[in-house]
Amino acid sequence: MDKYGLIGFPLGHSFSISYFNQRFQDEGIDAVYENYEIPTIESLDEVLNLNPELKGLNVTIPYKEKVIPYLDSISPEARAIGAVNVIKVTHEGKNVKLKGYNSDVIGFTKSIEPMLDKKWHKKALILGTGGASKAINFGLRHLGLETVFVSRYERPNTIQYQTITPEVVQEYNVIINCTPIGMYPKTEVCPELPYEAMDSHTILYDLIYNPDETLFMKRGAEHGAQTKNGLEMLLLQAFASWEFWHEK
User: Global pTM?
Assistant: First the structure.
C-alpha cells in the first residue's frame, strides 16, 4: 500500500489527512495518508526510513523553508518563492530522491483570480511574512499586482500595522491575511486595520478556513468588502499535490 503524509509541528487538526483518506476510499485507491508530527526537521530522515512506502509528502509550518536543504531537486517556482509544501518521494534502488514543489501559488491564484477586476485591483497588502506569504506574493505579482508586506515588527521591506491609514487601505484594496490571527479557537481577534475605509472594491482574502468567517472577513463585509476564506485554496492545493506526486 502506498503512503502519503504531512510533516509539520504541531499538526493538530489537519485538512489533508481527512481529505486524502476520504478520496482514497471514494476512488478505491490502495493508499493511506498519515500525519507525521516531527519536533525538528532533522526527524525527516527517520520518517523516510520508517516508511519505505512513502510516495509523497505535504509540508506545513514551520518546515516550508527548513526542508529545502534536504531535497535533491526543487521546481523553479518553489525555488523562486523560497518555500516548499509538496515533496515527491521516489525510490531508486536503496536511494530515496526528494523533489520539492509549491502548490500554495496554484491554489491561491486560481481561487482569487475570479474576484479581481483589473480596473480596480492593482495593489495588495500581504499580512505576515512566513512561508505562505512568500507564495502569496509570488502569485499576486504573477497576476499583475504590486505588493507590500505588513509585519508587526520592524523588518526590511515591510510596513507596520500602525502605519496603515485609511488612504493606504483604499490604494491597496486587496488584503490577504497570511497570519494565524483569528484562527479557531481565538476567533475574537483580527488584524488591526482601518476597516471603516473599506468598500465594495475591497477584497479581503483570509488563508484561515476555521472558522468559515473570521472577524477579519466579518468586519470588512460590514463595510461592503468582498471576502473569501482559505478552504477553496486548500482544495485546489490538494489537487495540485496529487498532480505533483504523479508527475512523470
Answer: 0.89
